Records
---
Amino acid sequence: MTKFKRTLVTTALPYANGPVHIGHLAGVYVPADIYARYLRRKGEEVVLIGGSDEHGVPITIKAQREGVSPRDIVDRYHEMIKESFAGLGISFDIYARTSSRTHHELSSAFFKKLHDAGKFFERATLQFYDEQAGQFLPDRYITGTCPHCGNERAYGDQCEACGTSLNATDLINPLSAITGNVPQLRETRHWYLPLDDYEGWLKEWLLEEHADWKPNVYGQCKSWLDNGLQPRAVTRDLDWGVPVPLEGSEGKVLYVWFDAPIGYISATKELTPDWERYWKDPSTRLVHFIGKDNIVFHCIIFPVMLKAEGSYILPDNVPANEFLNLEGEKISTTRDWAVWLHEYLVDFPGKQDVLRYALAATTPETKDNDFTWKDFQARNNNELVAIYGNFINRTLVLTRKYFDNRVPAPGETTDRDREVLAEIPRVIERVEKNLDSFHFREALREAMGLARLGNKYLADTEPWKLHAANPDRVATILNTCLQVAATLSTLMEPFMPFSSERLRGFMNIAPIAWAAMGGDVLPVGHLLGEPGLLFEKIDDAAIQAQVDRLEEKKRRREATTARPVAPAREAIPLDAFANMDIRVGTILAAEKIPKTKKLMKLTVDTGIDRRVIVSGIAEHYAPETLVGRQVSVLVNLEPKLLKGIESRGMILMAEEADGSLSLVAPDKPVMPGAGIR
């Protein structure tokens, strides 16, 4: 059937500078997990590779804003992301990180091999430099006015308002994001990968040999190739990342989009000493799951890197998806317009499969799609509960009632019984066809179609009305329903693994191999387990709470955007300010004060001492996000007793018009006790 002996599935590496949201899940991780679980259940050899991208400018910006090191940021968010993925059942064989020693060594060796083979060239260019900060500015460290739409907060690489890709020099009135100063152009040198040298090969390999790739992927790649490729810099002036392994290159690191895809290789190397079998054996199939914003990197740049290196296989498919919107608006991490996975797992405990189902059913496969909380509720209540769950529960309860919880022997069958059983292999075939071609939404629809068929068959035959007069007929009906239910325990597993495991518990069966589905998979006389509810209804109040949370975010955003600036207060004597002793402190511990809504107990190293300060910030910060943060502290404030705790000092906060608070902190780490003046 296939020339491949194994499949290597990779997922885009999320930046470890924030949590994961449903857009990431729908576009990349849920489809990748469905595909990997499907191949495993078929008995094929497959590994699912994931990990955190822990380099790059977004992480250094986050660290500077919080007054901590990039290492603090990536350590915090790597664990959060890893735990969130595990909570949703994303079945990575390894979830690695690009800050690991293995990754640094492998990335350096990859770069060095290409450099020594003459695959790069060195070029001097003009780049913005912040004289006060004493550093060159990566694109994301530069803001200004977009020349296309007039957005005054565009970045040096992209305008998030109109989506146009930019060069920093395109910006009108560019400013340093570090100091706010006007940056100066200075000469710097970098190494470039000449993508244009590979145009002919790419057109043959990509446009001719992979013309069957998804239209959105193929179309974007063709557009790039038709417009002509340009050399791409593979290094940056930064102090966070994989250092360029050449003499005289101090202060330079590998460009994050050069080292990040190598993270797939280094993760596999950490997973198994046999890693080269997955990356250098032509009988391995390599499949990248990504979002549409990463198509160029995975279909053009990374393949050119692999081709230039010479010993690695190339991707066989890149089934990239489009974007998922939220309640009609584009998901935005900067505007906090998102449904965060770690929050969902807390708000909806035990309902991982409901989110997986809703996202699989709305996968943005060929165009952007929209997630709404009302649709999420309807899919749970009207489909999972009313159809799939209802069919399973009634089948098992009736079997326990009429046949002592054992699979009954079927009697004479009717055309309707045979039609239902005959449909099982046809559904399996359609699900397989769609999964093999990365049509996950349609595959799920087909799988749910079998649950619909079983539920309608049970409702139409009404065995609860027949038992007294015709127990043999009831035995046939329930045997048929049980065979459908057993098939569903495997057919639904790639999409909803948690409910499939529960269903197997209800039926007292081990996992069924994919090839064994259909027909009489349950022997007569098999003792079932205790029946239960596969899914539960989600009430209006739970959904309204989520809608209200989003609406509150929108109100705050609009209030912040439209707020008038408060006028200055009356002038005060210089002595009044001079008497305030404000210093930099480091938060050592943080905990919410029980039975209060706003108060948090902070232990702060002020450089003078370690003291307790009670602060009204519990609605704005989680305790675990505060530890290690630097803050501004008024240290000579008179002590005050709050909720039985002596508070010695005050944390300075910036307050928006909507009441939201932000820490006032230095823009780089300093020693506790440093004076603020």
---
Amino acid sequence: MLKKLISAARRAEKAELVLKNATYTDVFNGVLRKGDVAITCGKIVGVGEYDGIEEIDLSGFTLLPGYIDGHVHIESSQLSPEEFASLVVPRGTTAVIADPHEITNVCGMAGCEYIATASKNVPLDVWLQLPSCVPATPFETSGATLSGEDIQNNVNNAYVFGLGEFMNYPGVVNCNDDVLKKLQAAHAAGKIIDGHAPSLSGADLNAYLCGGISTDHECVSGAEIEEKISKGMYVHIRHGSSTKNLGNARFITRENSRRFILCTDDRHAVDLKEKGHIDDALRHMVNDYGVDPITAVRCATLNASECYGLKWRGGIAPFYAADLVAVDNLKDFNARLVIKDGKIVAKDGKALFSAARYLPQAVLNTVRLKKPLCAEDFKLPLKGNRAKVITLEPGSIVTGCQIAQVASQNGDVDIKGTDILKLAVVERHKLTGNIGKGLIKGYGFKGGAMGLTVSHDSHNIILLGDDNAAMAAAGNALRETGGGMVIAETGGALHTLALDIGGLMSSRSAEEYIKDSRALLQKAYSMGVNSGYEAFMSLAFLSLAVIPELKLLDTGLFDVSKFTFTDIEA
């Protein structure tokens, strides 16, 4: 192959494909250049003047390196890896750093292996991070546990690229033995370790970084970004569906710009289809936050490549992988042509590939209840009239804790006429019968219950409602469908959307799933869900016990700031 590449590069033979008259980004010098881009054997062999066996005129377009998503959970698209690729590749994404944390929490290593195998069928590089914190905390019931020994036994698997986001930052800082075993295993295997350390600073941040952790996607302020970059970290700018900090783009300067990476983390299928992927982040960075277009492109390409050690990727230069996207301009970033390994894989927003679906039995039928749920299961007796209530903010997964006056009647809280709803987390993996119960304010939903089997990070059933019987009906419906999303109206009407893969993803086509998902979302908003929230995905983060302040687990109400359980009584 080298002889062929060198011969094409020096024009001794024609390149297989030449992109003629291209205006292309030189991400190394930060400028635009003009010329032909020659490709052979899936590699760029030269830029300048070339003739090709096949030629495509790119006059009027701008050629960029293919985008790299620096941190994503494919499962959060609620699509199979094959269908996920069908949406992101036509947008210009040619590689993702994927952490299968969600399905591994449900199915263990079988879930991790599923993502790895299914991803082989598509023209998208999926660099898989072995989930580091399964479960995210020891206080909840997950479908699987990956101990330090499990990490040691699996980190050298051929499909494992690195160690996924290390959410258990208290375990790192306090030198938990099992945590150290995981970190040491990654280092011994020469694998990069992703971080997750919201608001960590000072000596605790120093201690966390001494675990050999390289990145963070949870920054909330300019001061936090400055400190983390000053201490050698790469900072992800995140543009997800529920988790967003794209405003951090305003902290990019000429001096620190090489330490920023773009990621989506959690991006729903509807948003991928209607708004885009990394291309949408680029649009907003340039148009809303005034980031220089080439600087923004660097964040999506070369910076990510250098952070993760992806050699010969992220740039347009000889011997670099021919992973490219031609866009209409550096303002709208509409992808007109996408090339992966020298092959045209998408054109004008349409995928030019299809992949056979891989669907092993190990990731199906994962919703198990000890017994059918009934209305009595959702009674919430209080001794007094003051209770801790979860509050949340639009566009954020950080929750608050508010003390509210709550009446009781017949051994149950009475929430009629208030903006308070019941919240419940029902264990669905180990047949424990656990049901954690709490209250939430401001979600807006009325007239029944809604719920889903996507609830970070252990993915038990999470339900919200103002009707005990409807909450029971919603939970039972999720068991019947094998997982998914549901709305149960008071009076009996059910609206369901199956997520048959681990209770997290649909095995159907993206088009079919998006149509039904959109209809269910509209139903939720019609029943009063606050328009500032992602109707279901905001609900999915209310059990995430590594993001402050008050969360609900299957085992009870949890104070993340104190990292311990708390009584609902106030």
---
Amino acid sequence: MVKKVFLETFRKNLIFYILLFITIAVIIVSSLVPAKMLEHLIDDYFDADVKDKAIMWRYILLYVGFTIGASLFDFFKRLLLLYLGSQFTKDLRYQMALKLARVEGIYYSNNETGITSSRFINDVDAINTIFTDGIVSLVIDLAKIIGIVFMMFVLNVWLGLATIVLIPLIMGITMLFKKIIFRAQMNQRKMIGIMNNHISETFFNERMIKIYAKEDYMINSNNNYNDLNYKAQKSVAFADSVFSPLIQVIKASIIVGLVLLANPHNDALGLTMGMVAASLEYIKNLFMPIDDFGKEFQTIQKAMSGFKRVNEYFNEPDENEKLDLKLEDILKESNTVEFRNLSFAYGEKVILDDINISCSGNKKYSFIGRTGVGKTTTFRLIEGILKPTMGRICINGINVRDIPNEIKFKIFGYVDQKFKGIKGTVFENISIRNEDIKEEDALKALEIVGLKNKVLSFAHGLETVYNDTLFSNGEKQLLSIARAIAPNPKILLLDEITANLDSITMERVIKALGEASKGRMILEITHRLSSTNTSDKIIYLVDGHIDSILTPEEMRNDERFKNQIDLEEINE
């Protein structure tokens, strides 16, 4: 998929890529010509009997012109690469965003936020170096090396052969040291990560450190990590400091050897002074592309891991194709939600096993059970976000997995344990920028939950910019209910919405829910058994199975629940 995105970007920007190829060709030629001009300048003017100043200025201008031209075209190359790289990055991240919108819901359970963020940011930036600067620079440097070898053969066959022998030697030493430096740098980064983690843990556990008098342990740990980090830094500095002088010594030795061989008294190679000057220029220019070649090879190697991770992301399974359904094809006056032989597993771990339930009418159904029995997973299956391992969930006979995502908000209203605000106005926080929800819908929802007067008391009313200080925790939960009922859905899903509330605030939320529930089916997850008094049916889940389906009266008289209900009522 990454290659496909690049080819599409290439097609859309074909003219710019042609300009880039021309620019690269000019850079390569321009880097080789000045040394040749230097040879002619010395041999045709300084060593010639004829002191024609026109010859001198011609070669000087050509030498300077090609040098400046190479710099200018290198500038244009950077501009083109910056533009084309930005285009490719934008196109790739756009395709990744489209993928994120259609990826199967299990992806979100199997991957942490940081992993996906790293793919979108770090891996895409790394891939960008492959298709732009990495490969382009590698090609330029390789072409320069080949060009220098060719020009050395033009000057003298023996110089050409010597250059061919020198290149593997220089490249071998360069690659060896780059590998040593890279390993040292990776070790240093690892130690920096450990140091950062240790400091974060110190801040996070500051209270425990103080209470249990663990300051000495914290300081000793910090010193140990600091020593390891120092050693890692020293390794990087040592390897880097040895490499540069070594290359300079090799370069100087080659230059001295060339000068000795070109000595007119022994005339070993039959070189003119101009040829010697040109050879020295080529030798000097040979080291830079070889050094860069090693860096670029490492960069491409590193980026290939990003290439692999992004392709793995694109290979994640997509949601199934949805049916062409309208709201009126699905909902009725009295709706039924059926669990038909429903099973679900995260890998080898079975969460739900052969669940069969039928919830119908504008009634309230409560799901209870210990943490980890699959209550929240059940809701994600009801919404069609997760794909059942076996079986299905149907609304009025229609599989929820076949319902288009764009109309689900009119079917399900979901209220979480905590309100999740977005950047924008109060109205946008209720409507989630959905054009189907009008201001009158938001005001009606706010009135039902008892927040209308408060919102209208703000200077800008619904258009007030939302921030966390505008509402208390209880009011945020009411706002969450308003968001859920604003599109007038027929089914409300409540996921332990009173879990983090005090008894007074909880009473206010429950009262608002009573109003919001009218004319709707309510499916709720709750840990407070006493709040199931208003439920029509209570579904007790144990180890992924339905243990029992009870009425409030049956549950109150059941010895398994009686003590917990009594304790909750005493605490309230």
